[in-house]
Amino acid sequence: MKELVDRVFLLNRATGRFEDADLYHGLDSTNLAHIEGRWRPLFELRRREAKASLQTLAEVNAEDAHWEWGKKALAALNDPFLFDFFVLECGGSTQAILMTRKGGQDCFSRHPEHQRLPLIYVEFLATAPWNRPKLVAEPTYKGAGRALVGTAVSLSLEEEFGGRIGLHSLPGAEVFYRDAIGMTDLGADSEGVHKGLRYFELSSRDAATFLSVQH
Amino acid sequence: MKRTMTLNLSDAEMSVLDAMCEEKGLSKTALVRQALRLYKSVDDRLARGEKVFVESADKSEKVELMVL
Amino acid sequence: MKLHFTADWLRSHIEHDPDVDCDAGLPLRDAAPLERLMQERSRHQATAGQPSAASEHKTVVLFKLVHQLRRKDGLSIAQLAAKIRVDAAELEKVEKDPCYVPGPRTVHQLAEFIGVSARAVEQLTAASSAQNDNLTEAAHRFAASSDDLSKLSQAERRDLNDFVKVLASIDKKNG
After folding, report:
1. Which of A5, A32, A214 to mutate to test the interface with C (most CBs of C within 10 A)?
2. Is position C27 within any domain?
3. Maximum distance among all alpha carbons in chain A?
4. A120-127 and A165-168 as β-strands: parallel, antiparallel, unpaired?
5. Which of A161, A171, B59, C155 is most buried, by the most CB atoms less than 10 A from its CB?
């Protein structure tokens, strides 16, 4: 059901140390059990706490509307021929999941440097709730987003798409994709399932920069 | 696992394939693979009873894609 | 798949990246939508000829069908093989090896014996790519029915007859 791609790292914020993390292609029932048994209760707990402390759900990135719409969007995706899953496991738990699309709608570049060229579209990149700085006060692991975006870019290169990827950032993550990853902000969608979300693309040129620059 | 096949194309079809590979920066294999993915994703939607439309750039005309 | 970044690259960036959310596409709060996608995927893989739980299930059903048919008529493997003019060794493989796909002649002879089309029987083998929901559901029900070696009980006889009816109805739909 899933196979190991490589061993990568996540930074444990509590210890300040890097820990080995396994990156898998595909996902299995263990990952689903983690999401259902560990992710979901924490989301629900945090939502109740936010409501009690008069924080808005938007402030903690836990709006019900987003999830309802997300479920509908996922329900529409039923052609596994086009999709790949990647999961990141560390510390005995599923830390993040990436779902990519490699053909059909959304896989045509909108970037002015190479419009209509094929790209890998990130259907979703989801991190465990305990890793999200907006959701919990002391998030556990850092780096899942960076490792999975690197994975999507790698898949794009393997597919001969020049490292091009596209995605819709969820509210609060725009700064990560624009400033940390170096993607181009092509504005918010005015219609469709991602209405209101900003669309980002990593061009072929930016993908080369993304992979070559090191601090 | 990957499998190899021979494809018989006319000169005209081959020149379109060459031109698209050049334009998209893809090998012939990658281009055919992308075409198959697109074809299948559209065909699956049509098979489910959904409709696929093509709209003109100025949005004045919208044509339903009946057959691919 | 090969990763196009190095461990050093990843470490140095993680240290310098801002401490912000990075979720994209759509929020994932529970596993239900992914479970459905995974079911689609295993169905897809089965039709692509790769072994999966679904394809094993179909073979188990074929084994069971042959087994119950023999019990119904009180026939040994050799007797059934002689009756339908197929190799007894092959019939034994159908019953005993979950991955075994019988040859076209055996499929045809079995179908004739049951009174359905060869196409319907072929859909119960691991080599089949076509199995509609109706047949899968019926096959699941049939597989779940009891399986002892004594004579068929009334309930087992009913399960067997019901399943053969579903097979026969699929023949009609497919022409």
Report:
1. A214
2. no
3. 50
4. parallel
5. A161
The CATH number for C50's domain is 1.10.260
- Give the pLDDT mean for C60-70: 78
**Averaged pLDDT for residues A92-105:** 94
Of all helices (H) and strands (E), which one includes residue B1? none
Nearest CA in chain B to A80: B41
- Average pLDDT of the residues in B6-25: 95
Q: What is the ipTM of this complex?
A: 0.91
In contact, A169 and A196? CB cutoff 8 Å: no
Helices then strands, counting H and E runs in chain B, come out as 2, 2
In single-letter form, the type of residue at position C57 comes to H
Q: Which of residues 11-50 of B touch A (CB under 8 A)?
A: 24-27, 30, 33-34, 36-38, 40-42, 44
Rg (CA), chain B: 15
pTM: 0.71
Whether C111 is in a domain gets the answer yes
A4-45 pLDDT, tens digit per residue, is: 999 999 999 999 999 999 999 998 889 999 998 999 888 888
Give the helix ranges, DSSP H, for chain C.
7-16, 32-47, 53-73, 77-84, 88-96, 104-114, 118-122, 133-144, 154-174
**What structural domains does chain A harbor?**
3-212 (3.40.630.30)
| Residue B15 main-chain phi, psi, to 5 deg | -70, -35
Q: Which domain holds residue C148?
A: 46-174
